[in-house]
Amino acid sequence: MNRFLTLRDLSTMKIERLVARARHIEHWSMAHSLIGKVVTLLFLEPSHRTLASFQAGIAQLGGASIVLSSGQGKWGIETRDGPSKDGDPEEHIRDTIPVLEEYGDALGVRCGSRGSSLADDLAEPWLGVIDSLARKPLINLGSAMDHPCQALADWKTLDDEEIPRDGKFVLSWAWHPRPQPLALPATAAAMAARRGMKVTVLRPEGFGFPAELRSRIIAEAKRGGGTFEETDDRVGALAGARVVYAESWGAPATIHSPARDSNLRAPQRAWRIEPSWLESTEDAIVMHCLPARREIQIAETVLDGPRSRATRQAVNRLHVQKAVLLAMLGSDMV
Amino acid sequence: MNRFLTLRDLSTMKIERLVARARHIEHWSMAHSLIGKVVTLLFLEPSHRTLASFQAGIAQLGGASIVLSSGQGKWGIETRDGPSKDGDPEEHIRDTIPVLEEYGDALGVRCGSRGSSLADDLAEPWLGVIDSLARKPLINLGSAMDHPCQALADWKTLDDEEIPRDGKFVLSWAWHPRPQPLALPATAAAMAARRGMKVTVLRPEGFGFPAELRSRIIAEAKRGGGTFEETDDRVGALAGARVVYAESWGAPATIHSPARDSNLRAPQRAWRIEPSWLESTEDAIVMHCLPARREIQIAETVLDGPRSRATRQAVNRLHVQKAVLLAMLGSDMV
Amino acid sequence: MNRFLTLRDLSTMKIERLVARARHIEHWSMAHSLIGKVVTLLFLEPSHRTLASFQAGIAQLGGASIVLSSGQGKWGIETRDGPSKDGDPEEHIRDTIPVLEEYGDALGVRCGSRGSSLADDLAEPWLGVIDSLARKPLINLGSAMDHPCQALADWKTLDDEEIPRDGKFVLSWAWHPRPQPLALPATAAAMAARRGMKVTVLRPEGFGFPAELRSRIIAEAKRGGGTFEETDDRVGALAGARVVYAESWGAPATIHSPARDSNLRAPQRAWRIEPSWLESTEDAIVMHCLPARREIQIAETVLDGPRSRATRQAVNRLHVQKAVLLAMLGSDMV
Description:
By secondary structure, chain A is of the alpha/beta class. Chain A contains twelve helices and twelve strands.
């Protein structure tokens, strides 16, 4: 495996093998698998859970990691096409990647969103440029529209909990003081659809997924045997749910205009996951990919309660990422 | 050993065993003791000597460390109780700790002071929350009122120098442009009292330790056979001293009000450790836990002179911390 | 070898042995050479290519690195002589170095320029202080006037390309929105002169090297059998060149006065390396030590074209630095 950029690029069999491998890794030490290997982690935006889980996993496999974080000190990386501007970034990503990939054996990049437009986020030219420049194994550590490490961890969490492949998966919007990117909700919905689940996105009017994203998820549902729908009917959505997954995202129409977005979100401030929400579900587990805004996105009694699998999801990041690293750099025949 | 939060929690025998272990480690390589172990270091405030000594020590024992620093980039951790505010921190410590501790084998946290009130600093609710959340070994890398790694390093330094257990230990206040936390002076005084020393805190009027802190140190003196007193009489304090330990701290009444504190400290600007101070001592060594404000807290001829043990104290950080790590993660029966 | 501060301190035979060692290392894994060794990397200014190449190289040799970066969070290091000011830095380099060097086996320091005066840059008192304080192996990771790691990587690149020892080496100034330090152009010119090359510095009037720097390079040319000249005649300079090395630097007279410098540079905005420049050369390779301002310093068709060796230079950083580390810490008899 030379690329791990989105689950959409992988066959369902490959996904299942990676999850199975992660379950094995969880229980068996493999401290010598990556001896002598160096993995370079480039963060164009900070992400400390990703940083910690990759550094820990690489070390536990016997390898070494090097970390570069943009935005610390005066350093920055220009990612826009065309000539460098006279602005701050001294370096262009076209020069960074070919060198970094020569220093190590694999490259992980957190590129996030450029924050310019939804069309840009959907096209992910930034990730595309990095993909075109790197010849060695490349891992997407979180981009404008995808987070395959989280998707694989969530898939494993659903398997760990023996949630039926065709169970009902409710992705609920939750209020947040700022418009959040679409990457994580898009990733969770596509993952569940691909796993074969009945995916319902529960959100206020105006916060529906953009058409192109909806098409992508429906395509994943077709491949996996799942379904996809969106609604603002909370009662109907929650009835019979096996999973309630809490996420916040900005309204697609205003996601890069915080001021306009603020007006749109203001009336929804009370929209948060409450204990009462779970009553009509079928013993649903509650998922959240963290970090959480406690009491704002989700009641603490839910997040800290017996149905919550938030910590479990984060811990599974460690296990699935080790499986991905072994598939790329080890002798694994995944 | 599962906790290293303050020397007050340890028996004197345990402290002595850790120091003895550190003296052994100083002279013998133990490069395989922590192979396969991962120690997570979480810095809620920066501390580069702590960072460097832990990273080096862990590597020298064959283990790996991962480092997370709050305050770099846009990331932050909320530590206040109650619901997350709408402010900057995206993450709550209640979600951070359970995940981080699953990624590694032990956790070190530098939490410092919240800077809100002296009562808060004395109660250390922040450290208490982390303690309640972590099941794996936990090391205090410096909190509002304690710094057990520094205490153990200082204890070893006193032993290295063969300073008598009942010798006179003078902790002298020194001027500093800003009000400094009480953690380090409190730690040094309690350590020396516990070791059985005659502790004298030499400080201007208004800079006496708060009552609760004084009680704690007196309790330590009782356990260790030492004594504790405070004075502003420099001549009396220094006579016969075996140790002069330089520290700066804010006046307890104004420590979290820099403007008020500034007025209180202004008349004391000349209060710094001078060569002449050592004349009436009994060949006292001079201690300073670094970083030092040269010529402001202490004359350079003293800090760089033959009586200074400041570098030695910092180097002992490395050795005692390795002893603590081995007691927690190795096969040591300390 | 206990010091790697400038190529000027090394015999030509030693330089050649290091390059030969680097060529060997490039093709053979030496994963056990530095097991148990800790290298401390102190960045008083950020440099991410240096950070990445050292971290990767140390890991590939089996050692561990610890990284301290000034300027992150509230931490800083005072390097001026005399008493600490009341300003931000809590720590003086005189206290930092003796401790850091005890924690590890070797020390690398990126000290850059103080930015105060050209005389200061030329004298490098900062590097001198660190040199006087460290007893263990010390590597200059980039100072005000020197960058020996880049010099050695460039030397290896010239050897890799079989550029004749007496070939023509043109170091061309290029426009940049800000006045850049003299360290890299000075290093490249001195390296080429020492290698025996015919060095021509092509730059606008007002951007000639300061007299003391010129003397240094001429001395290197004498040792190596090369020559040194400066000119603003592009046609004459490029004719017959084997190497065109692109660099930007501030006018020595105004380098620490950005406003004055800006006026001086403004008329030269069009001075960038163009494809047409290569026509009269003898199949010259194009060098650039990165980061590059694309289309501003150099045309993208040149930087990304077949003559460019910019990535190769950066990759050679890895190999030569491993040779230096082995010469200092390994069993190499270089």
